[in-house]
Amino acid sequence: MTTYLLSWNPNQWEWVDMQDAIANAAANGFHEMRWSSGVTKKIKPDDRVFLMKLGTEPRGIAASGWAVSHVYQDTHYSNPAKKALYINVQFDTILKSDTVFPIENLIYDPFYQKAHWTPQASGVTIPDDIAEKLEKDWAKFTNQSVPIRKVEYADEIDSTKSFYEGAVKLVKVNIYERNSAARAYCIKKYGASCSVCGFDFREKFGEIGAGFIHVHHLRPLSEIGEGYKLNPIEDLRPVCPNCHAMLHQRKPEPYTIEELKAKLKRTAG
User: Fold this and answer.
1) Partners of 237 in beta bridges
2) pTM of model > 0.85
3) What is the pLDDT of residues 229-265, one digit of tens each?
4) 61 phi and psi angles, rounded to 5 deg
5) Within a domain: 104
6) Is 48 in contact with 124 (CB distance < 8 Å)?
7) Residue 216 is part of which domain span?
8) What is the mean pLDDT of residues 20-48?
């Protein structure tokens, strides 16, 4: 996953439905729309993006999200006679136009000065070490959990892998890919506590546990099939690793969240 800086100048393009976009992101966990990628063609699905508001005060980061398409060409936003490059973005957080993560926090900080924060167009790459710090500072500013990068689990990775168990037995396992953007929306909607037992890693371990949680597919991806458009609010739930393992103790159909909660309640009683 690469992190990119998108740019927005209200003097050049007025975001007329911005309030609706903010409300949609708050209610559903994300707001999807197209955005210019400048001249870069490298952005790909699952890349992280931050939106820099320039041109008018206050200047600073106004939104964050995830690319959900490859770069494509379409009609230019301000000149129908021209073409421009775009990506589809799912913004997970959109701030009001008068509330931004101040650009001064970036251009005057010696660490952040290694990156370019006033681009003429979208598509500037943010180095990994700077992106990591930005994620933490952005999370503090917006009072949210830091998104967890893609983590692979045995039922959620998109490939067929073979491995040897011991010295002689060849085992083949079908596993499916998790979309880290969908994971972030799920956690934003439901929080980072386990949907079964309520365990919260931050409460137990402090800052090192902030945002740590597994995400469970209510419908196993092996049953969904290729081409299914996952809805992170309807299809995913946060669960701790122990409960995640217990959900998959029944095969081929996992236990439901409700079934496992009932078992836990009976045991506790």
Assistant:
1) 216
2) no
3) 678 888 899 999 999 989 988 887 889 999 999 998 8
4) -75, 125
5) yes
6) no
7) 178-268
8) 90
Enumerate long-range contacts of 124-127, CB under 8 Å, 24 or more apart: 124/4, 124/5, 124/7, 124/38, 125/2, 125/3, 125/4, 125/5, 125/42, 126/3, 126/4, 126/5, 126/50
Q: List the one residue out of 215, 208, 198 whose CA is nearest residue 260.
A: 198
Q: Is residue 105 part of a domain?
A: yes
Q: Are residues 133 and 218 in the same domain?
A: no
* Token pair listed for 256: 């439901």
Count of domains forming the chain: 2
Cα separation, 242 vs 198, whole angstroms: 12
Question: Do 15 and 100 have their domain in common?
Answer: yes
Q: Evaluate whether residue 150 is within a structural domain.
A: no
CB 184 within 8 A of CB 49: no
Q: Does the bond joining 220 to the residue before it have cis omega, within 30 degrees of 0?
A: no
Residue with tokens 């095969």: 251
Polymer length in residues for the chain: 269
CA 243 to chain centre: 23
Q: Which residue has the tokens 């200047």?
A: 59
Q: Angle at CA 134, nearest 5°, toward 190 and 229?
A: 40
